Amino acid sequence: MKIYFQNSLSRKKEEFKPIKKNKVGLYTCGPTVYDYPHIGNLSAYVIWDVLKRFLLSQGYQVKHIMNLTDVGHLVSDADEGEDKIETAKRREKKTAWEVADYFIEVFQKNIAELNILSPTKFLRATDTIKEQIDFAKVLDEKGYLYKTSDGMYFDTSKIADYGRLANLAEVEQQEGARVAKNPEKKNANDFAVWKFSPQNSQRDMEWDSPWGKGFPGWHLECSVMSRMELGDTFDIHTGGVDHMTVHHPNEMAQSEAFTGKLQANYWLHNQHLRYEGGKMSKSAGVFIKLSDLEEKKYSPMSFRYFILQNNYRKPHNFSWQALSAAQAGLKNILRSIAFFDQAKAKASKEFLAEFYTALADDFNTARALSVLQKVLESKLEDKVKLATVLKMDEVLGFDLESLRKRFLDLPEEAKILLKEREVARENKDWARADQLRDKLVAWQVEVQDTSAGQKAIYNWLE
Ligand SMILES: [Zn+2]
């Protein structure tokens, strides 16, 4: 099946052609581990998870690398302000190392809760300091770096088409050239490859280097790790749309300066999750964590469903009503398949083809979900419906089989009430049967009376 992606680099939908047959090298910019991830951060990892699962479903072996930024990401992406981990350490009253360890654990727990497949490898920035220094040394030898009082900077004027990813020249013409806050920078877009430790204080994280004690700039780790694990040029690089103007052009510039080659062939960018039309961020006072959803009785899978209802390249507005609607949608799927025959059946080829075709078109998850609905509404045998839906779920990643089992796993008290109700029905005591049905509702158990007797589901997604 031919797969098409909207490539940010060419601004076109292009057919995907991997470098090596049946193999994909995939790099995703990971989190800066200085705080809890908010659901906007997490939504991107859901999106890239579906991309990866789709590639796996088409028989590709996917090597997926994700970095964990535990040093060097300054308060502004454009190298201004303090290291985010250093600010967090004062807030948390911990060392920078403890802060990073803690939030790496939180992030990994969150992505597991969202049923996101773990990357082939996570790499921590602080675990690759030697490799980053070696890489920067080559850039320095090739004449791309210059020294200022606070670090070694990359001279972006030495890259002929710097910023082509975002068409940066055009963006800046529209907005007026970015004013360099650091007067020592030669060009406004120049960025730090190595920052010096401040002279009057000691950082928890700092290393010796040929240029002086300090720490790597944020962009360096992605150039280094992607090359270490995936080679000079790899297939797909993913990240948030905000990376198109600073982080990704900088990564690309370093990698091209080092290897003389393009870092990645396909650059895919997701739009942000918005809240009431605005950006979701702590500074804007909108900071919803995955645990906040769970406290309000939303399943992480309902959030996953909500994300997949949207096209990843379109802005998506989060609201509690929209999340409730997504939870109701997921619940309807589970209700439909709860009692389906477990007997092994073959999935419907026609519906699967339609499903994969939707995803092959720049992984249109919204359309893929509508194909799943069509299966449930179709005239197929129940067991074929179930087999088809579960096959689709390998890509969508709701883990429907275990959610379905939870629907059938009734609380003990409810089982007792159901037995009583069976007796009442045998005795044709309909008033008692209705009374017991109402009692069961309090246990979140819904009863259906069928020709084969009563059937019940535990609606834990209420
Ligand atoms: Zn990156």
Ligand species: zinc ion
Q: Name the CATH architecture of the largest domain.
A: 3-Layer(aba) Sandwich
Structural class: alpha/beta
Number of strands: 18
CATH topology of the largest domain: Rossmann fold
Question: What's the shape?
Answer: elongated
Going by CATH, the homologous superfamily of the largest domain would be HUPs
What does this molecule look like?
There is one protein chain. The protein has about 450 residues and is of the alpha/beta class. The chain folds into 3 domains: about 270 residues, Rossmann fold, CATH 3.40.50; about 120 residues, Four Helix Bundle (Hemerythrin (Met), subunit A) (Up-down Bundle); about 45 residues. Helix content is about 45%, strand content about 20%. The chain has 16 helices and 18 strands. It is elongated. The structure holds zinc ion (ZN). Zinc ion binds next to helix 7.
